[in-house]
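Subgroup meeting minutes
Present: P.N., E.W., G.H.
Scribe: E.W.

1. P.N. recapped why we're keeping a running log of single-chain structure predictions: easier to compare across weeks, and new members can see raw inputs and outputs side by side.
2. G.H. added today's entry (946 aa).
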Amino acid sequence: MKRTFITALLSIAVAVSQAQAPKLIEEVKKNGNELVIPYQKYVLSNGLTVILTEDHSDPIVHVDVTYHVGSAREEIRKSGFAHFFEHMMFEGSEHVKSGDHFKIVSASGGDLNGTTNQDRTNYYETVPNNQLQKMLRLEADRMGFLLPAVTQQKFEIQRSTVKNERGQNYDNVPYGLAGETVSKVLFPYGHPYSWLTIGYIEDLNKVDVNDLKRFFLRWYGPNNATLTIGGDIDINQTLAWIEKYFGSIPRGPEVTPTILPPVVVPADRYISYVDNYANLPLLYISYPGVKMYDADQPALDALTMIIGQGPNSIFYQNFIKSRKATYAGMASRNSELAGQIDLQVVPFPGQTMSEMQKMVNESFAEFEKKGVSDDDLERFKGSSESKFVKSIASVAGKVSELASAQTFTGNPNQIGTELAAIGKVTKADVMRVYQKYIKGKGAVILSVLPKNDKSGPAAKNNFTADTSGYRAPNYGYEGLTYHQPKDNFDRNLEPEKGPNPVIKVPPIWTAKFANGIKMQGTFNDEIPAVSVNISIKGGGLLAAKNPKKAGLPYIVSQMLDDDTKSMTNEEFNAKLEALGSTITVNADDEEIIYSMSSLTKNIDPTVALLKERLFHPKFTQSALDRIKKQAILDLEENRTQPANVATDVFNKILYGAENIRTFGLVGTEKTLTGITLADVQSFYDKYFSPNITKVVVVGDVQKVAIQAKLSFLKTWKAKQVIIPDAPNPTAKPLLKTIYVVDVPNSAQSEIRVGYYTGVPYDATGLYYRLHLTNYSLGGDFNSLLNTDLREEKGWTYGAYSQFNSDRSGGVFIAQAGVRASSTDSAATQFYKDIKDYARQGISTAELEFTKSSIGQSDARRYETNSQKARFLLHMMKYNLTPDYVNKQSVVLKNLQKSTVDQLAKTYLDTDKMTMLIVGDKAGFVPALQKAGFKIIELNNEGHLKK
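Output recorded in log:
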């Protein structure tokens, strides 16, 4: 790595009051095969830090603006504001009207979002390279011109949206309040980490639009931000655009670091609560940890891996393999001001919270006795290196790494430093941090209890927060004034896009072995890694041959991910972790897929492990009993989660409660119970055959080399396998009827509406045209459903629709999780929006938006190894040739309004549709009955409620 500093320029750039050309502060270049992200770092005269990294491998650009402010800059009774403000940043600015930010990015073929955590807020876009100037204009406009566009109406809608987000992700899911509860007790009262970023509903209800304006003026100045851009860019042109759009924005108030004393928990603090949705209890133990980039962070990561992560961990052996718990894990989390060391255990029925805590303590004692082995450190270091390599596989990953490191250290170049620190971790270091942060130290011990739990918490609640010493921080909100930038150009003018990018569909090689195995691959040396996917046709559909054994394909896939004939699962995974590799086996409705990922330098030993897993599985009764028990508990747990209940029950309404398509992959409690070890062996022997197998290879390896490495597949003997067709639906849903699953006291309602279309997947025919037809209705953030239900009415965090098909025909489904009090209104509005779209058809503007958005998004489809692998797997699954992408482009380009209108009228007919609502029926059933709907109540398994 070559690193150049231009230290004198920093003070000059900051001191100059008037905009001038960005000043180069530092440049880092890559030497040889070192793991480093090359970049140039600049500072504008207004204090904006700019980091640029060139990557011309794909015609895309990623733009990230990170503001060094998160929920840690809030205070008691004003929580959630940083995240709320993130939402407001998408609601338009002086030169970009409300809604246009999303529309412009989407019409550019791009992807965008914003995220808030405790310490920073970032906004990003990934777009084709010809759209960069537009993105810079958008980001600069909301940095410099947000306030003139802020209105009370926008404020109220986004306040409602944030409350819906909290309901969907926290209040309406099992264990959703666990982290919030622990934070309140682990950190002192008033500590900025003692509440979650989402905040409290009562606090969100109290803030007003003036709070928002003050927050913007205090924290959203260019001197508190880092603009990071990576991808297919021209450095000089990019700098010129940055200066044009950002250079005149005035500095904001100075921001000084927050410095807090370390968190201390002098004695164990026991707390508990009853969860409205959990089917099983949760034991959650949290110790104070260390800040990010702390010298002890790598050793703590090693410690938590050894005790609580993966098949070789102590927790896995003591809790999972012994069938005491369905989940047990441990991790170290690191933030800017403090850290946490968290343990979570979800026990199987029959275990108590006090017993689980006792087993945690016994596991700690076991660790003390065993200590740290050379193998432990080798596994930790190998897997850590691999994670760093994979994290920068995309330009978005590179930009995120640079932006985060700059924001929290002032130095973007941290990967080498972190890897060096990981490489220096010793056994003594791991034992030292155990003694320092765990052994004999006080912790928060939370017991989350289901409504029907009789066993009680780990111990009686013994903690009440001391609020007497709290003093609200003075963040300097008084006297802030808005100074509008002064420009010599018209910001109302949207830049023209540059020349359309040349889409780089990866060059594809093909091969076939004599036993019928088909192979496809593509070479990519952007990172030193390789992925191999082996797909065996069949999957859940094979259960159609014997519905009494539904779930068998899934169980087999889990068994294949366990012991082999020469290695236990622990030994197998120890080798993988030391190599920094992964091998997993998963099943879906149509396939069983082996997925291998490896660093290039370790491909040979990883392929040897792949061969072992594929050809020499060891099916044991103990593994089968454990996997079946886990699968049955997963089914039971899913029936406590409204979103999962809605998806499962709606499938049964559309296909039939006893139709194999609704439960063939995972089965039912009854079918899973009946699966034997002989069934597993027979399934493997009968249905695993090379002539129904496809192999996809992507990454840093050439065709000839990988064919030689995978030559062991040639020895696999073919057999005749007949894959059954998916059965047709056996259900006949009643029309003008709403099916209801009652969840008393539910914070939200889950709505599903749709019908079985019978349209099979095709890449360029009817199904593809239906996908295009739906895009303006519910296929994009800017679609009719989401704009109406979220952006205009504030009833939901998101509303979408799609045509979803495979070879056997599919469904149309529209869905949303909505605020409980708005359920009846949202239900009728779903029907109205779909009906209006079918009757009125697509507008000319919507058609052009669809063409622009989908057409230019191809630039983002083939960037990473995983994207390329999905592309190739998709082609092989549906027997497509690479030119299908060009054929889709022709269909899209020639798409006529009349075609869309006719398809919408035919396939979006609400008279064919059925609705399901999962929520608190008392709040919406009377109004829907009054509106003329028939109500049929089902239980959470989809059967008529007695």
